[in-house]
Every structure is written in C-alpha cells, then in structure tokens.
TrEMBL record:
<dbReference type="InterPro" id="IPR003594">
    <property type="entry name" value="HATPase_dom"/>
</dbReference>
<dbReference type="InterPro" id="IPR036890">
    <property type="entry name" value="HATPase_C_sf"/>
</dbReference>
<dbReference type="Pfam" id="PF07228">
    <property type="entry name" value="SpoIIE"/>
</dbReference>
<dbReference type="Pfam" id="PF13581">
    <property type="entry name" value="HATPase_c_2"/>
</dbReference>
<dbReference type="InterPro" id="IPR039248">
    <property type="entry name" value="Ptase_RsbX"/>
</dbReference>
<dbReference type="InterPro" id="IPR036457">
    <property type="entry name" value="PPM-type-like_dom_sf"/>
</dbReference>
<dbReference type="InterPro" id="IPR001932">
    <property type="entry name" value="PPM-type_phosphatase-like_dom"/>
</dbReference>
<protein>
    <recommendedName>
        <fullName>PPM-type phosphatase domain-containing protein</fullName>
    </recommendedName>
</protein>
<feature type="domain" description="PPM-type phosphatase">
    <location>
        <begin position="146"/>
        <end position="334"/>
    </location>
</feature>
Length: 339
C-alpha cells in the first residue's frame, strides 16, 4: 500500500511583488516537511519563485498552491490565474523567449528543475493559465503519483481546515476520500482528522465498511460529510453521506454526477450504499466538498474537462471556490496498472 499524509494546501496569492518571497519560503518549508534531501528544498523555492514572478508580471488574480504530493514522496507547486492566457505555451518554455524585456529563462528553468512539469493555457471563452511543477527525490517511482490532483483550503479567516482528503493505492484499486467536518475551525478539523485516521487504518475495506467505521469514530465529534471513491480499470464505485459530490468526466462532457445520501457520519448515519459507474480509460473522477460551487459542472468548457488532474484541481479551486467555506477538490484517473 502507498499513501501520503495530505496536509491542507498552502495558498499564496500573488497580488504584489513581495508575494514572490512568500511563495519561495512556502515551497522550501513544505519540501523540508516532506524530508526532501540535499538541495531539493532550495530547488523547490526557486521553482515557486519563478512561477510567482511569472504571475506577478503577466497575470491577473494569480495564486500559488503548495503541498506534498498526493501520492509518493515530494512537493507539488501549482499556479493558477485568470489572465489572458498564452498564445503559444510551448514557446514560452523556451529559454530566451520573453514578452517583458527580461532574459526569458523563468519557465524554462522551472521545466528543467522539476521532476515533472506541465502547463496549459485556455482560450478566450475560459481565460487563464495553469501550471504544475512536481519535485521528487531521485528514484521516486512516477506511477505512484501520476494521474492525481488535489487542493484543500480552509475558509478565509480560519486557521484550521475542516476539510481533509487522501488517496491510497493498494494491490486491488486506487481509493480516494474527501471529508468535510461540520462547521469551521478546530472542531470541524478534529472531526475530519478523526475520519481520516480511520480511513488510513484500513483503506482497502469495502466502502460501506469504511463509512461504518468512520461513523463509530466520529460519535463524539461534530460529525462530517464523507465521500469515498474507488477506482478500478474503466469503472469506479462511490459511497457517500452528506454533501460530497462525485463526478465522472471525459474530454467532451460530464458523464455522471452523484451526491452522498442525506445524513451525517457520526450522527445517525443511514446505511451506506455503493453506486458504480463506468470510467473510460483517460476519464477523470472528481470528488469535491460544498466549498466548491457545484455549478461549475453544469456547462464546463472543453478546455477545463481536458486538463490533467493536478491542473483541473487547481482550476476548480481557483475559479469556483466559495471563500467563506472550507473547500476541497480531488481529481484522479484510474492507474494504467495497479501497484
């Protein structure tokens, strides 16, 4: 079994030149918490600095999201904005290309330093640019962390985050969970973390048993909404209680929308039921709490649906978040092969 503790995402709004330094320090700190060896924390700081500088110079409403990799051992730095986009993203990654009179080495340096880097820029109907730089230690197996993206943010003004999420690969499947403790702040966070610990204790159990065990663990807390998703090759199972939404996306449309059964895990939870749905190869499954406005899925542009999971998560969190609520989104594809 492979898994990583998923702490809340560190958010840095790039609304001033001084945010570049904040972004670098955030990335260095997360890399150190991930125990990346040698010069890798400093490399993470450089990557974040370059991405933040690019947002400061060229974008509007730019934000960096920094966190441990959802799977595997490393750090992930996401950038999102609502700027005019890039006419030719590949050219922008070429050393020497510039639109602002600088040396034009920023994005090219990010691509060289990161273990994996990808970037997409949308058209005028859905403006914005999204980038993801992932940095791992030498020898980290890429299949453990590819095809997964997530962002988890507290409500504005709250120190603790009442949402939590995790994703685990076992011998039989890939299992993801999104948790939303009732309310905000520390009591909500305590409920979410109690449910998360229960999930990690045995994530390979049948999904109704996972929720039943959480229900027992949360009896002396505020309780939580829970959604659990299990991905197999070309299909998925969903089991949820409360307002955690599950969706299946392909490159052209949203194919399935599911919401958890009414109730609260920890307080009179109903008997959990499993819903299965097809997930074609290359399709993406999404789980999100109600801190992400569900209206995004009513008529999403194709450019959004085609984003890989890390960029999709950043785009949904950046463009459709309700700032007065904890907000979590997790996007994943079925592994091409099981671990």
């Amino acid at each position: 079994m492979t898994d990583t503790f998923t702490a809340p995402t560190v958010q840095v709004r790039v609304d001033h030149r001084s945010a570049v330094h904040l972004a670098a320090e955030a990335a260095r700190g997360v890399a150190r918490e991930c125990e990346l060896p040698g010069a890798l924390p400093d490399q993470a700081a450089v990557i974040a600095s370059e991405l933040a500088t690019n947002l400061d110079k060229h974008a509007s409403d730019g934000t960096l999201y920094v966190q441990p990799l959802p799977l595997g051992h490393g750090v992930e730095i996401l950038a999102a904005d609502r700027g005019p986009g890039m006419h030719d993203p590949e050219r922008c990654l070429t050393d020497g290309y510039t639109t602002s009179g600088t040396l034009g080495v920023g994005l090219g340096a990010v691509k060289r330093m990161a273990t994996h880097f990808h970037m997409r820029s949308a058209d005028g109907t859905h403006p914005g640019t999204w980038a993801c730089a992932q940095l791992t230690a030498t020898g980290e197996q890429r299949p453990r962390w590819q095809g997964v993206g997530t962002v988890c943010l507290p409500a504005e003004g709250e120190e603790g985050c009442g949402d939590a999420r995790a994703i685990v690969d076992t011998d039989s499947a890939r299992t993801a969970v999104v948790l939303d403790g009732l309310g905000h702040g520390r009591p909500a966070a305590e409920a979410a973390q109690a449910a998360l610990r229960t999930f990690h204790a045995d994530p390979d159990r049948p999904l109704p048993e996972v929720l039943t065990r959480m229900n027992r663990a949360l009896r002396h807390t505020r309780g939580a909404a829970v959604g659990v998703l299990r991905l197999y090759l070309e299909r998925a199972d969903y089991c949820g209680v409360g307002n955690i939404r599950a969706l299946a996306l392909t490159h052209d449309r949203v194919r399935h929308r599911l919401t958890g059964q009414p109730g609260i895990v920890g307080w009179g939870m109903p008997t959990p039921r499993v819903h299965d749905f097809p997930l074609p190869q290359g399709g993406t499954a999404v789980l999100h709490s109600d801190g992400i406005d569900a209206r995004w899925s009513l008529d999403p542009p194709p450019s959004l649906l085609r984003l890989p999971p890390p960029l999709l998560s950043a785009a949904l969190a950046h463009g459709h978040r309700r700032v007065r609520d904890d907000a979590t989104v997790l996007a994943a594809r079925s592994p091409l092969r099981l671990p």
